[in-house]
Amino acid sequence: MADDKAVFAHFHRIEPNVRPSGTGGQLDEALQARIADPLFLLARQRQLAEFHGEDGGSPVGCSLTTAAATVDRFRPGDRGHSVPYPPGVPVEYLAEAGRTPAQADRELPLRTAARAGLRFLGGLGALPTGVRDSVTDQALAAFPLLDSTSPADPAGGPEPDPAGRTLAQVLLARAPHGGKLAHALASAAGWRPTGLNTAQLTAFNLAANKWKAWFAAEHTPPTASSWVRDRLEHHFAVEASQGGQRITLTAPEYPGGGAEGYQFDIDATATALTATGTQTRTVLPTRATYPGMPAERWWEFEDTSVNLPSIEAGPADLARLLLVEFANVYGNDHWVVPLELEVGHVHGITGLTVVDTFGDSLNLKAAGDEHWSLFRLGIAGSGRPGPALLPLLPRAAGRIEGPPVEEVLFVRDEMANLAWAIERTVQSATGKPRPRADENPGLTPPGPSDVPGALTYQLATAVPYQWIPLVPVPLAPGSAATRFRRGRMTLPTAHGTLRTQARGRLLEPEVARVYFRDEEIPRSGVTAGRTPVTVRGHDGHHYRWTGYRARAGQGEAASGLTFDGVLPAKEATP
Description:
With about 575 residues, the chain is an alpha+beta fold. About 20% of the residues lie in helices and about 25% in strands. It is built from ten helices and 26 strands. Strands 1, 2, 3, 4, 5, 6, 7, 10, 11, 12 and 13 form an eleven-stranded mixed sheet that branches. Strands 14, 15, 16, 17, 19, 20, 23, 24 and 25 form a nine-stranded antiparallel sheet that branches. It has a two-stranded antiparallel ribbon with strand order 8-9. Strand 19 (about 465-475) and strand 20 form a beta hairpin. The termini are far apart.
């Protein structure tokens, strides 16, 4: 039922407290925003050259003329031979997946090699059963997955990869090594099994050719290696052509992971693109905006995501001062012209005509000179800005990366006057990452003498087994500059001595002498690794590779290595 009691509502209204003047402080006078000294504002406008009217009109139309040079060559390394650039292939794939044939064989995991060998045997279905069994036995004998008579570790250490050796023993009688088989089939002699008649040999050749094409598409490196070992980075270049002009873009310090336009330098002979094959487009410019941009109109409410008045900047904070000045003074003077360009070309604007609100046409040129530029490629070797060109190379979009299968930490040890390559993870023969800390060499550092009062001389203290020393040596005979050479250490064990041994591909244990530049290993260190990557190209094709990467390290390290020490003697037992 309805309540007969009367209800009264009380509320407070918030009103602005305006300065009293004239009629006693009315709100309408405050909203008028009257100016007390208009002559002062006119003088300030004249002082700031606002009466020149350089921004009196706004752009309402743009006519752009562009030219493009087609990217058609790829050159791995500093002095490698250039090869044709396949259209649409990501540049990261060519730069990171490049290998020499020997490197490709050594980096082929055992499981992958066995799968390739089983695929070869599965393609021999056209042969009779007895003949197919004979070919299988010959392939298993000629291309074994693992030589069981080889020692577990040439350095005399423990079994380096027990899981890989176990897998090899299981697959040894079931699958041949696909990498060895591919090399034998592609050799000049060409491996062929014995005991086949003419028809059977023809069927074998058809199956072998089909398998070789598959193996080449899946496991053959696209180019030679662009990884520079002593620099711990990739060096490569791409070339573009337009008419008779050649443009070379060099990536002198590509660490891996993603090739951006700013990582390239342009050759000194490159010039602006000619008018050959130009295209003209008419587009509508739009104003460049950003969050927190100051409002253009008097009564427009501004975005609160950025509070420009609260930015504190000292005399040395030039970046902050420039940011605040750009936001407050020039923020509304920038415009964006949308333009669609084709990937796989080096583009350049040969003409730009802007029409403003007054109908005037203005032909614009690229801003900057040889002393200052913005968003331009630098000339290789000089650092000066080059011509206004924009490279749009095919990129690896939507990449999927797995955990690193190998990781090496390069650190400095100032107390020992050495650098170290610490192999944290190496790739197992199974294809999976394997921590080297799992290896147990059974190190037994010498202890004090059993003779009371006798001193024990110690040549050097022990270090972890996976710490590979990098010894400083002269860069050249008689040079004061140094570089690091991969070395070995002799460690004491219960059964004698043991020499440290590199396992992964980054340190290349099969190479007799491996060097690293001194300036490439700073005090902060460097972390290098090999990471599996899968991407899909613009045409839907999948690209898979294991790329070398380098990134910042984790500072210095202390191994505790000392030389020429004396162990304290045991105290005599009373």
